[in-house]
Amino acid sequence: MRKMKKNNSILKEIDLRDLDSKTDRLDYYDGDIAIIDNISDLTNVAPFYAKMNFIVLCVKGKIQFNINDLPLMLREGEVLLSAPNVILDNYLISVDFACKILCLSDDIIQALLGDHIDTWNLSVYNRRTYVVQLPEEDREQFVYYYELIKFKMEHQDRDYRTMVMQSIIKAMLYDVCSMLEKPDDIAPTCASHGKSLFNQFLKKLSNNKIKRQPVEQYASEMNITPKYLSMLCIKYSGKPASDWIAQYTKEDIRYHLCHTDLSVKEISNKLGFTNISFFGSYVRHHFGMSPTKLRNSVVK
Question: Hey, is 76 helix, strand or coil?
Answer without folding.
Answer: coil
